[in-house]
Amino acid sequence: MPSRPSDEVLANDPAVTPVVSTLPPPPESQNPVRREVRLDRVLDFVSFVAKPMPLSVLLDEAPKRIAAIVQAEIVSLYLLEGDGDALVLRGNVGFPVGARGTVRMSVGEGLTGTAVATRRPVAVVKAPGDQRWRAFPFIDEDRYPVFLAVPILGFDRVLGAIVVQRAGDKAYRPSDVRLLVALTAPIASAIRHAEVLRELRDKKLRRTGGGTRKVTLPGVPSVPGRSLGAVAALRRPATSPQRKATGEDPKLLRGAWSAAEKALSALVARAGKLGLSREAAFLSTYELMIGDLRLRQRASELVAEGHGVAQALGLVAREGVRAANGIVGDPFLQERARDMEDLCDALVMLASPDARAELPTKAVLIGDRLTVFDLVVSARTHPVGVVLSERASDPRTPVLLRLLGLPSITQVEGLFQWASPGDVVLLDADHGFLVINPSRAEMATLRAERKKGKAPPDVSETTEAEVESDPME
């Protein structure tokens, strides 16, 4: 039977170079007590990952336990997503919370991408000086130059990578490399999310209404938090109002105008408190329009002529669009025309709500874009979260989401392919996932966090009749 290769032999293996093997052994290998502590931590980790658990728990807890085992200050868990060519940091200990879901790289890019592309560990003592290094300045990881990346291997493909980092100049030993490789095996079996990504790549379409099949969709976290609710698509009032004019319309218009003024003032004040006054400067356009006496008089004139509130405001909006389109190529006026349409839609819903555009309460809202209309109108239904598709490219979107202040993720591909109104979903904006038809284990975990004060207080409860999904294996 061949003998096991020594650490020195492994150190010269190009698969793990440049691990340095000439350093003295770590303290735990000299001290029997410390050696037992490390073994206890490994056994605790193996026992932990063998348990059924939601993906969010794995992403939160696995990095913490690995950090204790290998004495690392930073541990990151990357998952392979998209068409199998994108590595996304989903679990981490040591970096700011905002790193999860936003640190991304391609397979083959950076030291982590190299480990995944070659399916072999990569270890470096001074990572920022390596030519393969991919820097992310906003997480300031140059402070932790001692670097080790190990791919997470599945049955027929790579699922992601584990990266450990620490300060100083003492390299991770080959024994650390072997141990971390071994620890990826139970992680691979616990990543349920990988099967979802495979389904998306295979383009298995889901019928509208989708049934009770569990699906996990990845996105980019915008506002952290977790919530549970039923899906509702963002809506706008109909372009052809069916409500006829009544003698109450002038009063309704005045009330709507007053409510919109108060809502916009509140948004501007909130932007100031959040330090977003500069980014939210576009709100001044809405304030100017709602304070424009000519606009208000024009709407009042149309109502006095016998038009209903919705019809009058629709005419005002169309007049603004025609004026903007009359000056070809003026992007400022065209944007202002869209803002006017948005404001008029809000006034319509405040004055004479369109039942077809009303949203259920305590819902997770999904859509392609978010506008000031949603902060003035949709927010009145007390939604518990927002999920936007990959078509949400408006630069205002991140600001509007922060002003709304609900758990939210963006850039969710295939959102309308998989999610339908009425589906029960768990929004995990801490890691950047939308779980459609979550398991009972996932819902129980969220409720437990809520009791401990870790979840938002307005997360809606789900009755047993709302979802019948199998527990995680």
From TrEMBL:
Family per record: Belongs to the PEP-utilizing enzyme family.
Compositional bias annotation for Acidic residues: 461-473
GAF domain sequence ranges: 54-201
Protein name stated in the entry: GAF domain-containing protein
Keywords: Transferase
InterPro entries listed in its UniProt record: GAF, GAF-like_dom_sf, PEP-utilizing_PTS_enzyme, Phosphohistidine_dom_sf, PTS_EIN, PtsI_HPr-bd_sf
Alphabetical list of SUPFAM superfamilies matching this protein: Enzyme I of the PEP:sugar phosphotransferase system HPr-binding (sub)domain (SSF47831), GAF domain-like (SSF55781), Phosphohistidine domain (SSF52009)
Region: Disordered, residue numbers: 1-32, 447-473
Domain of life where this protein originates: Bacteria
Organism annotation: Polyangium mundeleinium
Gene3D superfamilies for this protein: 3.30.450.40, Phosphohistidine domain (3.50.30.10), PtsI, HPr-binding domain (1.10.274.10)
